Amino acid sequence: MRERLLLTGNHAAAYGAMLSRAEVISAYPITPQTMIVELLSELTASGRLDAEFITVESEHSAMAACVGASAAGARAYTATSGQGLALMHEMLHWAVGARLPIVLTNVSRAMAPGWSIWSDQSDILSQRDVGWMMVFAETVQEAQDFVLWMYRVSEQVYLPGMVGMDAFILSHTAEPLIVHDQEAADAYLPPFEPIYDLDPAEPRAYGGLVNRDHYFELRYKIYESMERAGSLLREAGEEFGEVLGRRYTPLEGYLLDDAEYVVVSAGAMTSNVRQAVRDLRDRGVKVGLLRVIAFRPFPITEVRSLLGGRRKVAVLDRNMSPGHSGIFAEEVRSALFGQPDAPPVYGYVVGIGGRDVRVETVVDVVDDLTVREEPEMALYVGVKGLPIGPLRRDSQITRLQPLEVQP
Amino acid sequence: MRWAVPEAEFMDPGTLGCQGCGGALSMRMVLKEVGDDAAAVLPACCWSIIDGPWPLHSLNIPVLHTAFETAAVVATGIKAAKRHQGKDTTVIAWAGDGGTFDIGLQALSGAAERNEDILYVCYDNEAYMNTGIQRSSATPVGTWTTTTPDERPEPRPKKDIMAIMAAHRIPYAATATSAYPDDLARKVRTAVAARGGMRFLHVLSACPPGWKMPADQAIEAMRRAVLSKVFPLYELRNGRDLTITVWPDREVAIEEYFELQGRFAPLEHEPQTVEQIRSDVAERWQALVDRHERTMALAGA
Known about the structure:
heterodimer, A: alpha/beta, Rossmann fold, seven-stranded mixed β-sheet, six-stranded mixed β-sheet, 38% helix, B: alpha/beta, eight-stranded mixed β-sheet, 14% strand
């Protein structure tokens, strides 16, 4: 029966796995993901979810167990965060190469050292190139629904899918959640019927040695599938609306029609961006919001059409790629490159290590955007004692330390 | 002599194993007893190659290749799926000594501690042979490998993996080798029958290139390993009850085991190490005998 409850993002993710009828769950506890593991343990122990729950000894093993289970034809789910996702890295690649539709919820947390459990998307974005589909939830509802959305597409294209949600801001914040009726969820997500399932009657070898005359083609097919996933995500998002009453899209625009300035954002901080956009509109600033929901595959064409012709674009990055800029800014710039109507893209790095990104923070960013003349790769917002701006030029090391012995 | 080993074959000829490969022979012997309702996990090891490059496959059971350190846990995942599907398939994790003693130890310990319903087989050739003979923690003291060259041979004794498994109190663990096929077959049979929990087989598997010996000496080397008591054959139930299964029927000095293999050449210049090994071997054998007798006494035999 459809229920309306007050739940946290973590519990919503667990309900997402339950509504998806995950068959094998393998997970290792890490703050701030633990509540997902705890609730799934309860749901399986009580029989409310008919699944095998494996309490592995590491995140690397959590993903490895999912790889085994999925290869044997089970719908496999896990959840992790920060260090745990980094430890999984090798097996994230494996899931892709083995073409296994595993779904993972990552509660984004800052990377150590220093130890920090607070919100920061550097962990998930460091996995950009492994070949997982990635979507970013903004609400508790989406933390649940995106699990189903990912499975729906994953099992069509045989690529795994990752749902990102922000530490504490979403994982530990209670919001009203509609837990869908199980029958309706089943109608949206039928049982997984794998092509291969390690059936002893069909003794094949999977994932073994591949010589140079085949490997490229296998990888090419991954590119093709990811390309296909773009349109399937859109279709499956529409279908979600028809079957379960909430329509999802790879991108979401807000007050974009006449916007001269656009703020690009992903994840939970987007709610504050939306409020800031409303406040700025009250002041007469023609600003809108473009929310990135699907990061992989990246909706390049729509980004071009939604951002083309704007006066300026600010990209908020709650992540860093030292030596370059924020990762979303890189992606947006790369999508726009060479487009005749491409606007200048200003990268803003915000909220690193869980520093609050408040409505006022976003207003400050837009105020900076409207007056700043030259676009910068990365402008740092909220570093103590510094105004919004690029790296301090005077602090940069410009010379090699001289050798003690001259050659 | 008649061996109590099934005639059925689940491994095709023409694998990529080297001549005299003990690892290939171990697989052949083990599968004869496991039968065809099985699936195997292969982490990085010689068997990643031996099975054949895609699209070839030399085993008549499905095989999932996986990352080096994950044999036990990928097998766990497969078993969970099979259990959920109501299937009784035997899931084998098949790893070398590197994938068991070293990089795979964490996942192995996790699976053992949770008493996962898998059959873990370590085919132990006592070094990283697939990458070209580098030492592992299964390499015996005094051995030459490419990372323990003649000038500085392996300085530490082989890790006691069976003691580690015993500490996990798993239902069944045994040492075995293809030089004693009926003993190996019986242990596989016992392990398969002990389904429901973790089973571990430590199978010494000669590697002629890595052990620096002619291919036709592989069986003889494994036999001498047992007869010299360097590699005793025994089984362990619940990590407690130990039974020796093959009692050497003649005295073989450890030198007779070493002299077959060029990898032990450094020992020729290290008589003290040889004496240390001799006393260690004798001490370990006596400890096994004591435990065997205690098991017998407890069983009222």
